[in-house]
Structure formats: C-alpha cells, structure tokens
Amino acid sequence: MALDTLIQKHQDRAYKFAYRLCRDEDVASDVVAETFVRIYRALPLFKGESAFTTWMYRILNNCFFDLRKKEMVRAHLSLDASIRTEEGDVEAQIVDTSPSPHQEAEQNERGRAIGAAVQKLVAAQKAMIMMYHVEMLSYEEIATSLKLPVGTVKSRMNRARHCLRALLHDDAALLAAA
Q: What are the structural domains of the chain?
C-alpha cells in the first residue's frame, strides 16, 4: 500500500522533528501518529505542488500546535484552589517546568555562539549546514538542489562540521552544558 511506503520512508524524520518540538518521546509519538492519520485523510487533496516532506511538516506542525492548544485548555487551574486531604486543606502548588532564567540565558548564549560560528563559514558550507540542520533536508535533497552527487554532499558536509567544530572550540565549555 502506498501509505505504508510513505510512513516507512518518513516516520523517522517525522519523529525526530516532533521530538525536537516537544522534547517528550510519548508526545512526539502521538503527534507523529496523528500526522499520518491526517495525511491518510488528506492524501487525495495533495496536489504535488510542493515536496511531500514540506506538506508533511506543515501537517506535523499543525498537529503539534493543536495538541498544545488542548494541553493549555486542560492545564488551567485556579491559583486559589486548595486540595482536601485527611489532614485538612492544602494549597495547590504549581510546579514551573519552564527553563530557569539561567538555563534560558545559557541556551541563548549557545544559540548565539553557534549562529556566529555558522556565519563565519564559507558560503557553500554555511548553505549546507543550514539546509541540513535548519531546513532538515536529506543529503539526497541537498544533492538535488545543488546539482551535486550525494557522496560530494556528504564529504562537504563533514568538512563543514569540522570547520564549525574548530570555530566553536573556544566555546567548548558553553556547549558541553547543553
């Protein structure tokens, strides 16, 4: 069946993307499952005007945002609410799971360091890093868009990563905290 082939071909990529969005294995699995259900329902509407992966990512993002909306509706709890226990009423304590200001500052600094290092790469290396790590294109898709053999893309990507690693050498302690 064509859908089985699509799922086998794209499920790993979809899961990795979903996991990067939510950082939770179970939620990522749910998002991917819902994505493929929606793809199945909408497959007759796919016109092929864009790459299938582009369409899949759009659906995956929508599934993720829909899930987040549902969670936000369920997550509302009165700050004045109390919980009854055998010992009496206890005030509800809400755990803040968001990153601390220190963690956010470190994350921002890591992002800044990586972004600055990427900007120092030569244009071809910068393009490959961005296509692979930001746009999440496969080696084959990069090869097609740059009209290069896949092996050339892999070797140039490896060289670009080595250059990036060398540029980030001074920030090794910052990156190790990630």
A: 2-74 (1.10.1740.10), 101-176 (1.10.10.10)
